[in-house]
Amino acid sequence: MLRLALITSVGASDLGADGDLLLPELGRRGIAGTPVGWGVDFTPGAFDGAVIRSASDYVDHPRRFLDWCAETSNRIPLANPVDVLAWNSDKRYLRDLERAGVAVVPTLWVGPGEALTGIRWERFVVKPVISAGARASATYGRSGLPEARRHVDAITAGGVTAMVQPHLTSIDREGEVGVYVIGGEVSHAIRKAGVLRAGVPPAPDLSLGRHQQVAPSPLLEEHVRFARAVLDAVPGGPERLLYARVDMARGEEGELLLLELECIEPRLFLEYAPARAGAVASAFAAWLERHAGDGQLRS
Ligand SMILES: Nc1ncnc2c1ncn2[C@@H]1O[C@H](COP(=O)(O)OP(=O)(O)O)[C@@H](O)[C@H]1O
Ligand SMILES: [Mg+2]
């Protein structure tokens, strides 16, 4: 039996609904899957590979998390590849994707020591480039400019670049759609309701995202095509990704725009697509079988 570490947050012992559905399916495929909090020192031979799953607490220690990922991938096969994890941990990756032709939500980037100027939108969102669960994110109208400036300063004071985007009203009306691509196959999609409300200050933790309403979404051809185009633009190519979620929302003209590409710790929300658990487990199993030997080479 091959042993797969499914990487969670430090101190977490399970993978929630994703784990409940995935672990038995892995077992049926001869894989013993075990949730493991990141930061552990893997003893040689304990696992044949590791897949990052629900390690959303990395946003509080991105450097330490990425160092641990690099260290781990020197010992056992790790998905996604460590260079993709590093690239995807900072939303400035959106600039690379835009350069490669992807339609991205228009964004002003404000680095440490820079001032927020040039806002041309009636309503706009401020958020950090390193985030999950709508952490440290808020929406403002023009009259909220002084608070928005303080918000940007609070982000950049921590050495992190801030992002300012038009508030997409489509997200309030219909939410965003996330399309999962796992093992190269488009798997399933979810719709997430908007979470940023006028007058609600930024939350220091992931609580806004934790209470986000989620529902299954049909796989529309348009969404699938957009997701594929985004993955095609990932540096190194889409074949290297074991899993990814492409989050998209509509702009003022109804066009699809990329909000986020999640290649680190997207919750799979398998509870909304339970019939997909077997296929996801098969993709993980195929990846592990393909790479398991690499571990011995490294130990
Ligand atoms: N430009 C925007 N317009 C409206 N809502 C937004 C916008 N950007 C983010 N949001 C809301 O904030 C949430 C979190 O933002 P997101 O960019 O997905 O970062 P993360 O999930 O990494 O924290 C989104 O799911 C969405 O509800
Ligand atoms: Mg998001």
Can you tell me about this structure?
By secondary structure, this protein is of the alpha+beta class. It folds into two domains: 2-82 and 274-298, Rossmann fold (3-Layer(aba) Sandwich); 93-263, D-amino Acid Aminotransferase, Chain A, domain 1 (2-Layer Sandwich), CATH 3.30.470. The chain has helices at residues 16-28, 62-73, 82-88, 93-99, 145-157, 169-174, 207-210, 221-232, 277-298; strands at residues 2-8, 31-37, 49-54, 78-79, 108-110, 123-128, 138-141, 162-166, 176-182, 185-192, 214-217, 243-250, 256-262. The protein has a five-stranded antiparallel beta sheet. A four-stranded parallel beta sheet has the order 2-1-3-4. A four-stranded antiparallel beta sheet has the order 5-8-6-7, covered by helices on one side. Strand 3 (49-54), helix 2 (62-73) and strand 4 form a beta-alpha-beta unit. Helix 1 crosses helix 9. 41% of the residues are buried. The mean pLDDT is 95. Magnesium ion (MG) binds at residues 247, 260.
